[in-house]
Write a structure and sequence with these properties.
With about 500 residues, the protein is of the alpha/beta class. About 40% of the residues lie in helices and about 25% in strands. The chain has helices at about 5-10, 20-30, 40-55, 60-70, 135-150, 180-185, 195-210, 230-240, 260-265, 280-295, 400-425, 430-445, 450-465, 470-480, and strands at about 80-85, 95-105, 120-125, 155-160, 165-175, 215-220, 245-250, 270-275, 295-305, 310-320, 325, 330-335, 340-350, 360-370, 380-390. Helix 9 links the parallel strand 7 and strand 8. Helix 8 (about 230-240) packs parallel to helix 9 (about 260-265). The longest helix is centred in the last third of the chain and has 24 residues, at about 400-425. It is globular, with a radius of gyration of 23 Å.
């Protein structure tokens, strides 16, 4: 295994500027400083980050270190970026204006020859009492099939948790694992649900083989809520992000906390999935692992700033695995697949544009990502500045087709978001009106089953002034699944 360079520790290319080095260190320090995050391994990892910063921020020490590095072939950025705006121009005004930017990232044709990246996975299985029966049996069967489908050089660990956690299968290459299927068969249900313990042990296992030339990912299956350790879980997700480890979760039934798991996974560019029937675990999890093997550019991150008169009010990943994103810099956007694009939508509120202005900057920043399928995995950084010209003439032209396609279905998802917010503040009537509108739109689109779920939930709200735990998730993840992926092009400009 090639040792990580100091640049890779900070997630930077070798030609990073002094400003890039300072920004990367500050970001990691904010998320990982041991004074704020006291957990196993955090201090050692932070000391490694600090060492990298101390060397690379000192011009003399940096020059000496660079001279010891092997020569690196300069390569062009393998990912092309295209931007679609909902408006061609903005107009001078003291009233707020809304504008959307749809950003698509796809692999250039010449980069498609790279090999499948090696996987470093940790499967975390909830074995609390509520998982007893079909749920745990299906999770075990799926884990065994996953073991059979992984490549010999892939790395897998399996962690079980309830109100305590233990490593069922220590991290190792698949060709070095001893009786992994037999170990899975030993899983049994008992105790309560404490997610942090499972996540913490899984991250420990992932770190044993973690490297930038691998896809490092934690996958958790659960059916319950964790109590009292949510903040520790979120802090652990920050630590995972700094280690370039993604987290994805599969929630079975209606009792788990989708807001919590969405927050947890968004920190790392991962996704949460809803499973209404335990029999669906197999296909969804195996599809997820296939998707991880299809990644070309991993841990795509946008470090940005907005001017004082502009707010990023909403961010959403359209594809792959549509999900709401965090709005604060840096945003971990996810991954660029080989067979399609990474697409995300940003909503900006421009508060004031003074007369005489010729251009409005929406955000300025840089995209960074890893390419684990390339020998000696590289970190690339590309500029992404979003801006619009200002014109005194109001733009009345329709938005581009790509924006319309994304917004038409995202609007349905946001309807249910707003209905949930209505319920949270005690306004059931507003929630009902929104859901009635949502049901009508779904019916017009031919989504009869989902429309019936919405109508059933309206009846529940009328009787109980709240969503049902199962129905709330059916609508949320049902509308999210409708959002179409962008069309694949053979080559990106």
């Amino acid at each position: 295994m090639v040792e990580e360079t100091l640049y890779e520790r900070l997630g930077l290319p070798r030609d990073a500027t002094p400003e890039d080095i300072v920004a990367a260190y500050r970001d990691i320090a904010r998320r990982l400083h041991p004074d704020l995050h006291v957990k196993a391994g955090a201090t050692d990892h932070f000391l490694n980050i600090q060492e990298a910063y101390e060397v690379l921020s000192d011009p003399a020490r940096k020059s000496e270190y660079d001279a010891q590095l092997p020569d690196q072939v300069k390569r062009p950025n393998p990912v092309a970026t295209s931007i679609h705006y909902s408006r061609k121009t903005l107009t001078p005004s003291f009233e707020p204006q809304l504008i959307y930017a749809l950003v698509e990232m796809g692999i250039r044709k010449e980069a498609l020859s790279s090999s499948r990246p090696q996987l470093n996975l940790s499967l975390v299985i909830d074995c609390s009492t509520s998982m007893q029966g079909a749920r745990l049996d299906t999770a075990k069967e799926t884990a065994i099939e996953l073991i059979r489908q992984l490549q010999p050089t892939d790395i897998l660990s399996i962690v079980r948790f309830s109100d305590r956690a233990e490593t069922l299968l220590p991290a190792n290459h698949m060709n070095n694992q001893s009786s992994p299927e037999m170990q899975v068969q030993l899983l049994h249900a008992r105790g309560g649900t404490e997610i942090f313990q499972g996540l913490n042990l899984a991250l420990f296992e992932l770190r044993r083989f973690r490297h930038s030339n691998r896809i490092n990912h934690l996958i958790m299956i659960t059916d319950g809520r964790t109590y009292g350790d949510e903040d520790k879980c979120i802090q652990l997700a920050d630590q995972a992000a700094s280690l370039q480890v993604g987290i994805s979760t599969f929630g079975i039934g209606g009792q788990w906390n989708d807001v919590f798991l969405d927050t947890l996974t968004a920190k790392t560019g991962g996704s949460s999935f809803y499973i209404s029937d335990a029999r669906d675990i197999r296909q969804l999890l195996l599809d997820k692992v296939v998707g991880l093997g299809d990644i070309y550019a991993n841990q795509v991150t946008y470090n940005f700033q907005t001017p004082t008169n502009v707010d990023l009010s909403y961010a959403f990943r359209i594809h792959p695995e549509s999900a709401a994103l965090t709005r604060n810099s840096p945003v971990i956007l996810g991954a660029v697949p080989r067979k399609n694009k990474l697409a995300f939508l940003l909503e900006f509120h421009v508060n004031t544009i003074s007369a005489g202005s010729t251009k409005v900057s929406l955000s300025e920043g840089k995209l960074s990502y890893l390419t684990p399928g390339i020998a000696n995995a590289s970190t690339f950084i590309q500029t992404l500045d979003l801006h619009r010209p200002v014109s005194p003439v109001i733009d009345s032209s329709p938005p581009p087709t790509a924006i319309i396609n994304a917004m038409s279905y995202l609007t349905l998802y946001r309807m249910q978001e707003k209905a949930r917010a209505d319920i949270a503040r005690g306004d059931a009537q507003s929630a009902i009106r929104r859901l009635q509108n949502l049901a009508t739109h779904l019916l017009a689109l031919g989504q009869r089953e989902l429309s019936r779920h919405v109508m059933s939930e309206i009846n529940h709200i009328q009787q109980h002034q709240s969503f049902s735990t199962e129905g709330e998730k059916q609508i949320k993840y049902g509308t999210r699944s409708l959002i179409p992926s962008p069309a694949r092009k053979d080559e990106h400009d």
